[in-house]
Design goal:
Strand content: under 5%
Number of strands: 6
Largest sheet: 2 strands, antiparallel
Number of helices: 8
Order of helices and strands: HHHHEHHEEHEEEH
Number of domains: 2
Oligomer: single chain
Structural class: mainly alpha
Shape: globular
Distance between the termini: 32 Å
Strand order of the largest sheet: 1-4
Length: 245
């Protein structure tokens, strides 16, 4: 293995494993959790810098697809279905995003006394609140995928594009699907934010930038990014040789 490739592998592995350890062992300890997220992002950033050096040295090899979806192994076939991959990728991205927004809300920690305490009660609260919220966000991405599928009449629209309502003359590229799915997610989130705000389910802290008082901008920002990111990751894994958008 070439030295730069080895460095990239070590940096990515160390960053992701150590960051994940800090996150999942510090569920009720916010500084530890944010440190874990920072370590993961730093590992990815350093890996990207090494990729830049590899390109300049003419040693960069684009990543291959993890596995061929035409394999006969039934378990692997299930895991490589796009809907399953969307849930997996969507859950992990949105879990970190949900956690990062803690300072933007009030009452999210059941009062100040729990804030930052590494107690069993706080861990259970985190599991019930943030893991559930991340899973619901992942299901929202699947719903957006299925709606986009119905509009473009193509299950793998994120790789191949599609045709609007099945009309051959209205063939579109994948980025149109990314736009549709993002609009679906953001529209649903805005409705949810307004509804929850009116019901008093949560309150925004002074740190939260808002639109029309009731719409928090950090959750909207997350869903402006996550659909395209998740669908691009899904495309990388389940569609070998897929054309780029």
């Amino acid at each position: 293995m070439k030295p730069l490739v080895l460095i990239r592998t070590l940096v990515l592995t160390a960053g992701i494993l150590s960051g994940a350890f800090l996150v999942f062992t510090g569920l009720a300890n916010l500084p530890r959790m944010f440190l874990g997220i920072a370590v993961i992002l730093a590992g990815l950033g350093l890996g990207a810098l090494v990729n830049t050096a590899l390109r300049k040295a003419g040693q960069y090899v684009p990543p291959e697809t993890i596995a061929d979806p035409e394999t006969t192994n039934p378990v692997l076939r299930f895991l490589l279905q796009p809907e399953v991959l969307i849930v997996v990728f969507g859950f992990f991205f949105n879990f970190f995003w949900e956690v990062s927004q803690i300072p933007m809300y009030e009452g999210i920690n059941r009062g100040v006394p729990y804030f930052g305490e590494n107690t069993v009660a706080m861990k259970i609260f985190f599991v019930r609140t943030f893991w559930r919220a991340a899973f619901l966000d992942a299901l929202l991405l699947v719903g957006a995928h299925l709606l986009t599928l119905a509009i473009l009449r193509e299950r793998f629209w994120f790789s191949k594009g599609g045709r609007l309502f099945g009309i051959p003359a209205l063939a579109v590229r994948p980025w149109v699907g990314f736009l549709i799915s993002t609009l679906v997610c953001v529209a649903f989130l805005i409705y949810l934010e307004i509804s929850a705000f009116d019901q008093g389910l949560w309150a925004y802290s002074p740190r939260m930038p808002t639109l029309f008082t009731k719409i928090g901008l950090t959750p909207v920002g997350g869903l402006l990014v996550s659909p395209t990111l998740v669908f691009l990751l899904t495309r990388r894994v389940c569609r070998p040789g897929a054309p780029r958008a």
